[in-house]
Give the backbone structure.
Amino acid sequence: MRSSFGYIVSAVVASAVTAAVFLFGPSTVQSGGGSPDEIARTVDGKPDFSGIWQANSSAHWDLLSHDARPIVGQPGAYPDVPVLAAPVVALGAIGWIPADVGVVDGDEIPYQPWAAARQQENFANALDRDPEARCYLPGVPRALYMPYKFQIIQGTTKVMMAFEFRNADRTIHLDEVALYPADAYMGHSVGRWEGDTLVVDVTRFTPYTWFDRSGNFHSDGLRVVERYTPLGRDAIQYEAAIEDPKVFTRPWTIRLPLYRRLEPDTRLVPFRCMEMAEETALGHLRKEPLVTRWEGKTMILDVTRRVPASEEELYLLQISGNPPEPTGDPQ
């Protein structure tokens, strides 16, 4: 028996699709049927990316090649071999990040020296700093390879992307539009076709999003040039060239495939994380905090959370990716 939640989700997605078709132009050719190697095309002959997609990668943990490691670690019995930290030790193997190869060309992110140090700070303090943990909009390219589905609705002059995580969305403008007047978490996207590849130039970012859960970051000088190339009907080769002269010494590129979800009843099921992050971000403001003591089946652990020391720090919930401000006498 279908739940009322299922009906609500279906209605929301159906309404979004109807609105997108009305706003973005003629509907595209259906993607079903045909050979898996055959590229589905729209009525104007462009590759048809409409559908629901998802990355199958560990890039959301770390863009670079990495060994298995605890989500939250502490020193173990052997040097340089961390174990799960006490508050999460009951998770066992569930609490570990899987090892994987990276998705960055050359397996290196070319940070400037100050930025390399900032990345290590971010990595060591990811639970406090990662924007995903506090349910901020994920930014580009991170939204494309998070472990959540997203939907592409393609028209002749606009391409809309709707993401399960935080109900995020973005519009890729294929026509001429005015530049977005301010910085945005998801940036401002302008696209064009190069043969069968959709090329998207994304600018106007805030400095408050990360690339992954390992502290890799950028400033408001970020520019991302995406390339979506069909690998057949049900896969897209995704590339994102990253430029940020405030943070990196040279441009670098992410490269990974995206896969169409083929289940007949697949749909977006929104992951509305705002309520989920309230206790994490603001739980210390409770008159009687929820987390004071944790009791497990075979262990009792006292959990102490760090309370911000000042009112200014209390509301400093974001860490900018911009370089440090100059200090002292310029002479």
Notes: The chain has two domains: 1-65+100-277, 278-314. The two ends are 74 Å apart (CA to CA). The helical segments are 4-24, 113-124, 126-129, 142-145, 274-282, 311-314. The chain has six helices and 15 strands.
